[in-house]
């Protein structure tokens, strides 16, 4: 034992608690941090290594002061054994300096240097703990000691007097003493109490939909690992073989039923005859304990557990030394042969070393070390949140709740922590609250309108790119004017090809010019620019309105957005049609007038935007449809109740999925992040949709967000981000985030992947029955759909509305017929019958017409008007 009060190396008899002096330590007055290790040699001697670390508070202005010097002393056995067969040991000389890891002047401290803490020797390899000082940004720098400092396990190179971090403990676990055990092939690292809490993150979700789970509940108000936290660790393979800890229960004792303690700190640990001996100081009370602060010695068997799985404390002794001494460390001997490492599997698979601490990612562990809420699993959970894009929302996600399973799946594997992180984060879409702070970016390209200061009333379209996760990341892709429209426009869009190098801009027109609601001015002109060209210039490539270049068609068919998909350009129309643009490539006459081919009629109230997702073989159509509360569902009270989305393949007119605000698909939960908005209030409505883009699983929809509520109503230019793979549960909501667009007046969004190669379409079954294209429009009748797409109820309500409109004589009867078709379930019955088949709507129309009966009196006898 390195006794700082007497400045002596002392030998303590655990059975009798008696001590004897072996040698003097190097000068250590005024310091209290260090370490001790012992090495049994082949000739029977023992080498003792003393680490003089320094102090956290003895430096200038209460700052750290470091020596970080390693000394060695040889203890030799007596020539004849004692009567009991043991040998007495005698110091062969005094401690001599072996290595100085700060300077080359023995005994000279360095002001501001952080002291090494604890010492372990495994074979001939030395290890110590180091807590770099951090600045406000978490970077290593000067400053005072902080409990938030990250602990690093260092490997010491004695010959070169250098050190290198081999493991990092980013949270919670703060080892203060170490011991190497050759016979086990491991080192033990011990630290004090730890309290795992995410109260601030939990509080951020209060008042929102946030059901708790046992795993989440353990962190919401904190789990206390009481008394000691010990990792048994093999530094050769970076493997935690076990974690020893005692979870605190209400009014539970620290070690024994009649003794209480708090503020326990450890400064020494040694291995002796199969048990660990730890020493430290704490405040004690109870029968058999000194009242107040005292030094203690405990022994525990790392191989034994009680009925609750906790390590068994074999004994607890208190130091009766009046000096209240500082101890630099304990050390025992554990043989000369090093046990082999536990073999670990190294399967193929991803390892995340970028979104979390790279060294921590290389940590491997046993199943016991992460079984439930342990210091290791808790440390990982906290670090996972710390590195998440939005920790407060991430805490409530299904991803956070999946941590125990991910850790268990990667036990006994190399880099288990990195593998678990890859499993948790690799499939998250950009912008997900549990995704990494550093990426991937939620990057969208957008056209931004600014209006002329002159009297011409013109508008300028500028091309920009932005990572929606940040306010300050807007950049101009094209530094000069992109295009000058001589007349204002409020409808249009952009799309990309060749990984964003080629941009196409749709100048749609204006839906409300001339002061008369319902009047449209349709320009429908498409321009293209190649940003990789030496001198990029916009050029007109097509016009799709019955008017000359630069002039609108009054009340023409107004195109509202554009997207390149599967080598074709598709556009949306204000009257809810999806069309394909056929360019005039003949070059004759230079007219640029192309043709519009109707692909499908959706039957919505309006269709505003389209986003290409070529990797999924689909586009996303975004618009509005007003549902009816046919069964007291109060769907109209849900957020963004009219907002409607289809995942749609225009090649076979197949609706693969649907989302609808009326069905509650855009409700916010505690797992929804407010992104770059200054408010965390959920938007009530999405108005004036101005474009959309699909970015690796995230569907971005831009428009005006209405934040109406009891505190008043206000509008903000913003974007909602839909996780198209979400389950729609409180922990995995469809509405993943909403972001500010800082009053941007948009003319379309796009991603860089719009024009990429498209996945093959799904093969649909042939129609099994006849179709009807009289009651409903033929371009509506040819729509097909999946069973999954029927979930939201959007297709069912649109179908009922279109069927009733085509069957009845007036709007009042049409509305009543629509209610009857919905409340009777007949509309849904007809649709389910033909899911996954070609011409599904047309077949459902014919079938529904045949089953009309007394439940649908307003719909008549099935004879169309």
Which structural class should the secondary elements be placed in?
mainly beta
**Structural Rg:** 36 Å
- The count of DSSP E runs of length 2 or more, i.e. the number of strands, is 46
Shape: elongated
Per DSSP, what share of the residues sits in E-state strands of 2 or more residues? Answer: 35-45%
Count of spatially separate domains: 4
Number of helices: 13
Query: What kind of sheet is the major sheet?
Result: 6 strands, mixed
Determine the fraction of residues in helical runs and give it as a percent range: 10-25%
Task: Give start-end ranges of low-pLDDT stretches.
Answer: 141-147
Overall pLDDT score: 87
**What assembly state would you assign to the polypeptide chains in this entry?**
single chain
What is the first-to-last residue Cα distance? 101 Å
Question: Which helices and strands, and how do they pair?
Answer:
Blueprint: E1 2-3, E2 8-13, E3 18-24, E4 33-40, E5 46-55, E6 65-77, E7 89-100, E8 110-111, E9 117-122, E10 125-130, E11 151-157, E12 162-169, E13 177-181, E14 186-191, E15 194-196, H1 199-204, H2 214-220, E16 223-234, E17 239-247, E18 259-272, E19 275-286, E20 292-305, E21 311-318, E22 327-329, H3 358-361, E23 364-365, H4 375-386, H5 391-394, H6 398-401, H7 403-409, H8 416-425, E24 443-451, E25 459-467, E26 475-476, E27 483-485, E28 491-497, E29 502-510, E30 521-530, E31 539-543, E32 553-554, E33 559-565, E34 568-573, E35 577-582, E36 595-601, E37 606-613, E38 618-624, E39 643-649, E40 654-660, E41 685-695, E42 698-706, E43 715-723, E44 735-740, E45 746-750, H9 778-781, E46 784-785, H10 794-807, H11 811-823, H12 826-833, H13 840-851
Parallel strand pairs: 17-23, 40-46
Antiparallel strand pairs: 1-2, 1-22, 2-3, 4-5, 5-6, 6-7, 6-8, 9-10, 10-11, 11-12, 13-14, 14-16, 15-16, 16-17, 18-19, 19-20, 20-21, 24-25, 24-45, 25-26, 25-27, 28-29, 29-30, 30-31, 30-32, 33-34, 34-35, 35-36, 37-38, 38-39, 39-40, 41-42, 42-43, 43-44
Helix pairs in contact: 7-8, 10-11, 12-13
């Amino acid at each position: 034992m390195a006794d700082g009060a007497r400045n002596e190396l002392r030998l303590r008899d655990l059975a009798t608690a008696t001590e004897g002096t072996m040698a003097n330590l190097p000068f250590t007055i005024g310091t209290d941090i260090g370490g001790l290790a012992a090495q049994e040699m082949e000739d029977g001697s023992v080498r003792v290594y003393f680490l003089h670390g320094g102090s956290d508070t003895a430096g200038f202005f209460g700052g750290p002061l470091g020596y970080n010097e390693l000394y060695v002393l040889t203890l030799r056995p007596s020539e004849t054994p004692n009567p009991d067969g043991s040998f007495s040991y005698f110091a062969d000389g005094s401690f001599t300096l072996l290595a100085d890891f700060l300077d080359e002047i023995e005994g000279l401290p360095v002001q501001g240097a952080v002291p090494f803490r604890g010492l372990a020797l495994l074979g001939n390899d030395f290890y110590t703990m180091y807590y770099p000082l951090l600045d406000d940004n978490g970077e290593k720098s000067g400053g005072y000691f902080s409990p938030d400092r990250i602990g690093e396990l260092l490997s010491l190179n004695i010959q070169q007097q250098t050190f290198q971090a081999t493991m990092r403990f980013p949270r919670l676990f703060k080892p203060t003493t170490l011991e190497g055990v050759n016979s086990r092939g491991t080192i033990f690292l011990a630290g004090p109490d730890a309290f795992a809490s995410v109260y601030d993150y939990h509080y951020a979700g209060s008042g929102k939909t946030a059901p708790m789970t046992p795993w989440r509940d353990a962190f919401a108000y904190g789990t206390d690992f009481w008394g000691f936290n010990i990792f048994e660790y093999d530094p050769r393979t970076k493997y935690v073989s076990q974690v020893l800890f005692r979870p605190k229960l209400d009014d539970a004792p620290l070690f024994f039923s009649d003794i209480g303690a708090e503020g326990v700190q450890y400064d020494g640990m040694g291995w002796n005859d199969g048990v660990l001996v730890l020493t430290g100081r704490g405040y004690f009370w109870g029968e058999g304990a000194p009242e107040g602060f005292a030094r203690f010695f405990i022994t525990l068997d790392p191989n034994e557990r009680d009925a609750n799985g906790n390590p068994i404390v074999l004994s607890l002794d208190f130091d009766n030394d009046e000096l209240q001494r500082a101890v630099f460390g304990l050390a025992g001997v554990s043989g000369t042969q090093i046990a082999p490492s536990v073999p670990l599997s190294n399967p193929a698979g991803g390892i995340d070393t970028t979104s979390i601490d790279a060294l921590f990612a290389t940590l491997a562990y046993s199943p016991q070390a992460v079984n439930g809420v342990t210091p290791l699993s808790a440390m990982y959970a906290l670090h996972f949140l710390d590195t998440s894009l939005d920790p407060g929302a991430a805490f409530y996600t299904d991803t956070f709740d999946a941590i125990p399973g991910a850790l268990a799946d990667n036990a006994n594997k190399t880099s288990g922590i990195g593998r678990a992180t890859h499993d948790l984060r690799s499939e998250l879409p950009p912008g997900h609250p549990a995704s990494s702070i550093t990426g991937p970016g939620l990057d969208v390209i957008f056209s931004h309108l600014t209006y002329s200061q002159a009297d011409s009333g013109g508008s300028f379209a500028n091309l920009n790119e932005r990572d929606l996760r940040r306010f300050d990341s807007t950049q101009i892709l094209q530094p000069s004017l992109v295009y000058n429209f001589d007349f204002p426009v409020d409808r249009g869009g952009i799309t990309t090809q060749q990984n964003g190098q080629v941009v196409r801009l749709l100048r749609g027109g204006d839906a409300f010019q001339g002061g008369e609601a319902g009047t449209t001015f349709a320009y429908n002109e498409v321009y293209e620019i190649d940003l990789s060209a030496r001198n990029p210039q916009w050029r007109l490539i097509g016009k799709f309105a019955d008017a000359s270049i630069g002039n609108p068609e009054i009340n023409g068919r107004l195109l509202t957005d554009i997207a390149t998909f599967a080598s074709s350009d598709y556009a949306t129309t204000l009257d809810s049609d999806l069309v394909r643009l056929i360019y005039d490539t003949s070059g004759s006459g230079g007219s640029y007038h192309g043709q519009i081919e109707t692909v499908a009629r959706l039957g919505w109230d309006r269709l505003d935007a389209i986003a290409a997702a070529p990797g999924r073989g689909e586009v996303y159509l975004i618009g509005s449809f007003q549902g009816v509360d046919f069964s007291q569902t109060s769907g109209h009270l849900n957020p963004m109740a009219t907002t409607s989305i289809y995942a749609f393949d225009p090649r076979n007119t197949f609706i693969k999925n649907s989302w609808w605000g009326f069905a509650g698909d855009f409700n916010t939960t505690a797992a929804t992040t407010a992104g770059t908005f200054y408010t965390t209030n959920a938007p009530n409505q999405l108005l004036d949709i101005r474009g959309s883009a699909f970015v690796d699983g995230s569907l971005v929809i831009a428009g005006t967000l209405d934040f109406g509520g009891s505190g008043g109503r206000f509008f903000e230019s913003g974007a909602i981000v839909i996780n198209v793979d979400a389950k729609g549960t409180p922990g995995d909501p469809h509405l993943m985030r909403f972001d500010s667009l800082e009053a941007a007046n948009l003319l379309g969004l796009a991603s860089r992947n719009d024009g990429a190669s498209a996945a093959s379409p799904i093969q649909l079954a042939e129609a099994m029955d006849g179709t009807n294209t009289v009651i409903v429009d033929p371009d509506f009748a040819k729509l097909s759909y999946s069973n999954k797409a029927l979930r939201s109820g959007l297709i069912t309500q649109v179908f009922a509305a279109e069927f009733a409109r085509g069957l009845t004589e007036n709007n009042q009867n049409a509305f009543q017929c629509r209610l009857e078709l919905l409340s009777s379930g007949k509309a849904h019955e007809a649709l389910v019958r033909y899911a996954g088949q070609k011409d599904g709507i047309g077949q459902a129309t014919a079938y529904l017409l045949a089953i009309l009966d007394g439940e649908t009196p307003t719909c008549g006898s099935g004879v169309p008007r």
